[in-house]
């Protein structure tokens, strides 16, 4: 997968996961789905700090980035990076804009097809519908990096999904049922992990937050 396509898929998955927040199986996660559904339906805005870790066969060590995130449902999300400073990724409807002034980068592309593909398989799906597209393993997370979380590992079974994403793991806070960490695995073997801190929901977000100077 080329870098541009990877960015489009990963950002669309971030948006879908933030809106969905969970998946379900017939076991313990029937409870998670039921609990998360009430939170998901009331979700209007999200703000948070994030840490992003990217791995690649072309890199000897992971790349760690940090910044802030803001979301207004149904389809506005902005990631402003403090490290590397100045980098911005914005989704506004079907348009993805990437700005990185220090590198002279300003790119705009249409992600409508990618978003519709994500919506088709992820958004507003029942547990049974999710199981038609994924093998889902769910349990209480054992790793110290995500205490008090459920871990949901979703492996796509449809070739259409596997072309862009070979694995998605969500760590969901057992108290708030909010997304804590998500890891995406791509056909190239590259991975991207996003961890969210200081998550605040349903507080007013200034529309100017989504403006790029």
Could you state the order of secondary-structure elements as H and E? HHEEEEEEHHEEHEEE
The CATH architecture is: Clam
Average residue-wise pLDDT: 84
* Overall tally of domains: 1
> Which band does the percent of strand residues land in?
35-45%
The general outline is: globular
Separation of termini?
30 Å
CATH superfamily: Lipoprotein localisation LolA/LolB/LppX
The biggest beta sheet reads: 11 strands, antiparallel
Low-confidence stretches: 19-26
**Oligomer class:** single chain
In angstroms, what is the radius of gyration?
16 Å
Describe this structure in words.
The chain starts with a helix and ends in a 12-residue tail after the last strand. It has helices spanning 3-20, 29-42, 112-121, 127-133, 159-162; strands at residues 45-55, 63-72, 76-83, 85-92, 95-100, 105-110, 134-140, 149-156, 167-173, 179-185, 191-201. 25% of the residues lie in helices and 42% in strands.
Layout: helices, strands, pairs:
Blueprint: H1 3-20, H2 29-42, E1 45-55, E2 63-72, E3 76-83, E4 85-92, E5 95-100, E6 105-110, H3 112-121, H4 127-133, E7 134-140, E8 149-156, H5 159-162, E9 167-173, E10 179-185, E11 191-201
Antiparallel strand pairs: 1-2, 1-11, 2-3, 3-4, 4-5, 5-6, 7-8, 8-9, 9-10, 10-11
Helix pairs in contact: 1-3
């Amino acid at each position: 997968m080329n870098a541009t396509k990877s960015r489009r898929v990963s950002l669309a998955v971030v948006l879908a996961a933030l809106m969905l927040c969970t998946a379900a199986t017939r076991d313990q996660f029937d409870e998670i789905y039921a609990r998360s559904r009430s939170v998901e339906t009331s979700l209007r805005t999200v703000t948070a700090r994030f840490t992003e870790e990217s791995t690649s066969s072309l890199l000897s060590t992971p790349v760690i980035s940090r910044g802030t995130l803001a979301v207004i449902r149904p389809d506005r999300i902005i990631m402003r990076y403090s490290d590397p400073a100045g980098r911005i990724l914005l989704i506004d409807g079907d348009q993805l804009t990437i700005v990185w002034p220090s590198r002279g980068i300003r790119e705009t592309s249409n992600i409508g097809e990618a978003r519709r593909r994500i919506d088709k398989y992820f958004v507003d799906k029942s547990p049974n519908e999710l199981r038609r597209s994924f093998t889902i393993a769910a349990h209480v997370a054992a790793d110290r990096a995500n205490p008090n979380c459920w871990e949901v590992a979703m492996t796509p079974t449809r070739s259409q999904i596997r072309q862009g994403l070979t694995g998605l793991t969500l760590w969901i806070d057992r108290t708030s049922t909010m997304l804590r960490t998500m890891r995406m695995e791509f056909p190239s073997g590259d991975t991207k992990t996003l961890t969210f801190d200081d998550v605040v929901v349903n507080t007013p977000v200034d529309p100017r937050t989504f403006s790029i100077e």
